[in-house]
């Protein structure tokens, strides 16, 4: 079966440009997570959805970051007015159940470079 | 949320058994211990999860002593393809799990 997919895999943006990153979770997975991973660091939590409900967005770095999952499946992470410090890999993960210690299945990530 | 401490990096040779130990002194009663593996340019991949004693699957073993204040991931007979970053995670709080910096394992021929 298909795993978690993310698109685009690579994105180069000029500073100030808006970007949208897409995540297709495994079909039927209730929970969806977004992480940001800087070079040489572990993934850092950004936000969490249970179906279409965004239960936690405490990890979003600023109000320029916005995530949605309107139908409880595909999710989009939008970054407005990108800055150089937004350059990172953005990882999406999904899990079958709602328990947070359930196995998370990660996508390959979107590598964002802001010039 | 239990803080974890694991070595920054380790080197080993093909065919050896590799043990990576993670300390988590303030683990809570309901916390599970989970290990993920991450290759370059890929997302993390679940390896193993345990609560106490020993858990074994086709990839690794996880040893957890009775006090649960540490855990050891054991990789038998490693190969070059086991070169990766290994993350130890303990518990979850407030709708999130926390990845640390992980252990960079480098397997040499």
Summarize the structure.
With 115 residues, chain A is mostly beta strands.
Poorly predicted regions of chain B: none
As a percent range, the share of strand residues of chain B is over 45%
In terms of quaternary structure, what is this? heterodimer
Largest sheet of chain B: 5 strands, mixed
- The number of E-state strands of chain B comes to 9
> What's the mean pLDDT score of chain B?
92
What shape does the CA trace of chain B take? Answer: globular
Task: List segments of chain A where confidence is low: pLDDT < 50 over at least 5 consecutive residues.
Answer: none
Topology order of chain A in helix (H) and strand (E) letters? EEEEEEEEEEE
Question: Could you characterize what this model shows?
Answer:
The complex is a heterodimer of chains A (115) and B (109). Chain A has 115 residues and is mostly beta strands. Helices cover 0% and strands 48% of the residues of chain A. Chain A has no helices and 11 strands. In chain A, the strands form 2 sheets. In chain A, strands 2, 4, 5, 6, 9, 10 and 11 form a 7-stranded mixed beta sheet that branches. Chain A is globular and about 40 Å long. Chain B is mainly β. Chain B has strands at 9-13, 18-23, 33-38, 45-50, 53-56, 61-64, 70-75, 84-90, 103-108. Chain B is 0% helix and 46% strand. In chain B, the strands form 2 sheets. A 5-stranded mixed beta sheet of chain B has the order 1-9-8-3-4, with no helix packed on it. Chain B has a 4-stranded antiparallel beta sheet with strand order 2-7-6-5, with no helix packed on it. The A-B interface holds A 4, 35, 40-45, 48, 55-56, 58-59, 91-93, 100-101, 103-109 and B 31-32, 34, 41-46, 49, 85, 87, 91-92, 94-102.
